[in-house]
Every structure is written in structure tokens, then in C-alpha cells.
Amino acid sequence: MDYKAFGGTVAGLGEVLDAVEAELLDIGVVVSVFEPSDLAVHNFNYHVPFSVPDAPVNAEILDQIYFEKHPWLRDDYEERFNQKLLGTFVVENYNFFSTKPIEKVTDLKGLKVGAACTNLLWLEGTGAVGVESPIPDAYTCLQTGVYDVSLQPSASVIKTNIFEVADYFVQVDFGTILCGGPTINLDIFNSLPEEVQQVIVEVGREYTMVQAKMAQEDYEKQMKVLEDSGINMTVFPHEEKEKWTQMLPNYPMKFAEEMDKLGYKGTELIVDYLEMVEEAGYMLPRKWHLE
Fold first, then answer.
1. Which domains does the chain have, with CATH numbers?
2. What is the rounded distance in angstroms from the CA atom of residue 175 to the CA atom of residue 92?
């Protein structure tokens, strides 16, 4: 019997990894942030705030990480979850939407900031109060005062018309973030003719950059929508990011050490990523890997 399913009817967020492993799906897009335990090492990008705001640039770095410098990351999918990682995908740049002006890091003190759980790490030491919140809730939460600031992927939240309830957009450039990638069940893959396998592998690699370019184009399109809305738009100063990062624990290297203890090459991974970010022309507000 042939059967097709669409729109998450077979597996929702946080279920795709298991569904592909169990052959409920032949191919699926695994969202690693919804697999915080099983895919902890693959969420390293969340532990490097203020990195790369440009999606294609970050995607190129991540492609080199997964397919050239650290192939053990792909092996991890195969050995533990019986699936082959075909590519990666990123979510667009994170910024602030606020009901109050934010010009320096001290302005965050006492403000309630809504964000996904993992992103709340970026607020530690600032005096801000983190409120766990998904994108669909941002509009109502800002409107009703549940929180003062929304920290979300910008293009996604602009589509909710958040500019109707936020007075300020602050371009902080927390960065674009690795969120997972498409995988195929390894038994299914191995059962296919070699020429079909080759096509799947090639298309998977192509997916990485196609998705990143689409994400960047959408981000730029939504920025134009934001400009036309009349919202107050400012850029958060680099020197304030430097002050901010000094308030934070050394999250990148702390994460690296935790992964080392689990048997991964965590330190090599984080150091390589940070060095590649700098080589791509981005000035890190803190030299995490040199401390």
C-alpha cells in the first residue's frame, strides 16, 4: 500500500527523529532544538550568542563543520539513530521587539523578556527577567504586558504583525542559528540503487544553501515590511555587546567541556566554529575560545 502524509500528521516537532528511526517516515526534517537531550551536541549554535546574522554565511560555515571538519557529527545520527543527515538548516537572525527603548545593556535591567527556553541563556547577568514564550504568543504578550520585550527570529515574528504592539525594533544580531536538517532512514537509504543514493546526497547538500538563501531573502523582505510600518528601528552598539558578553558565563566553552565529558570533540567543535566565524569577517564581541 502506498501512503503519503503531509503537514506533520505522522510526526510533529520533537517527534521526527524517532519517526525516521522507526521507519514511520523515510525522510524527515529533524529540528534539533526540540531534541535537547538526544541531540544536545547538535545545538551548539545556541551556546554562541552574537555570532553570524547572515544565514547563507552561517550555513556555509555549518556545511564545512558537518561535512568536512567534523564528520563525526553526521556519524552520530547514523550510529545512535539509524539515519543519515543530508544537510543542515538555519533559522533567521534573532533581534528584539520592545515596548521600551533599549540602547545599552543596562536598559535590560528589570525588563521582562519573552523567548524560547534555550534563548533565555543569553539574558543571564543582565538583570532582565526571562519569560518562556513561543513565537505565536509574542503579539498578545507584548500587547497585554506579560512581557516588555520579545526575543525571537525576526522574520517569523514580523509575520504576526508584532509591529502593531511593539514600539521599538532593536537590531541586536544575536545571529542565525543551526536548527537541524533533513535525514533519511539508513536502512531505506542503503536499500536504494547507488545512483539514487548519489542524487539524494547531492540534493541534501544543495538544500543547505537553498534554505539559507530563502531564509535570508525572507528576512530582508520582512525588514522592509518593518520599515514601512513606521516602528522605531535602532542598531544595538557593538561596544554594548562587548559589555553584555562580559556579564555572561563563557557559554561556548562551558558547553564544549560538557560535550567533551560525554565523549564528543566539543572543544574542537566550538573552537573551529568560532575561528571560522572570525575568518568569515565577523567581529566577536568576546573571544570566548581564547580565555
1. 16-91+175-224+262-290 (3.40.190.170), 93-173 (3.40.190.10)
2. 7
